[in-house]
Amino acid sequence: MSQFFQIHPETPQKRLITQAVDIIRKGGVVVYPTDSAYAIGCHLGDKQAADRIKRIRKLDDKHNFTLVCRDLSDIGTYAKVDNTRYRLLKTFTPGPYTFILDATSEVPRRLLHPKRRTIGLRVPDNPIVQALLGELGEPIMSSTLILPGETDPMTDPYEIRDTLEHDLDLIIDGGFCGFEATTVVNMIDDVPEVTRVGKGDPAPFQI
Prior knowledge:
- The chain has a single domain, classed as Alpha-Beta Complex (DHBP synthase), CATH 3.90.870.10.
- By secondary structure, it is an alpha/beta fold.
- The protein has helices spanning 14-25, 47-57, 75-78, 83-92, 127-136, 157-164, and strands at 3-6, 30-33, 38-43, 66-68, 97-102, 118-122, 140-144, 170-173, 183-186, 193-196.
């Protein structure tokens, strides 16, 4: 049975943030709000928690997990980014974008695309997740909360609880945060390519 925290969307309660991070550190699978939709995440180094997320979402090994970061200070640790890419990332973060980048050796192999050493990175503009990341001190390994057979993310924390309370350790109710997934931008090649149109405006990346 999962815990259910109601956290203020603009001024997150420190006590609840600390408890939530403790659950993540202990291997918990957590649903939390972002600036585009609700996400499901766990500790970066926890294989069992990652496998639970895969089972919940019925993901195969080709799925690119996303590292949700507090700011760009983590980017160089987990992704190979030159000056041109960094300037682009700086312009569009924080915001509702996921950027696919070449991963560094710091990223566990199980999180990578099996044929390409790539990883998704994202910096959301949401006070709750920013507080979680600040307390945790490292990225949260995440995926948009889209259930098998569905095309849209789950948006209602009470519906999430009714559907998944036996599969999760914590659901954070941060109110309505949107119903669109992020816009995904592949930055592996020299010219960025939009591979999924979501909440973020794709126009700046389209030629």
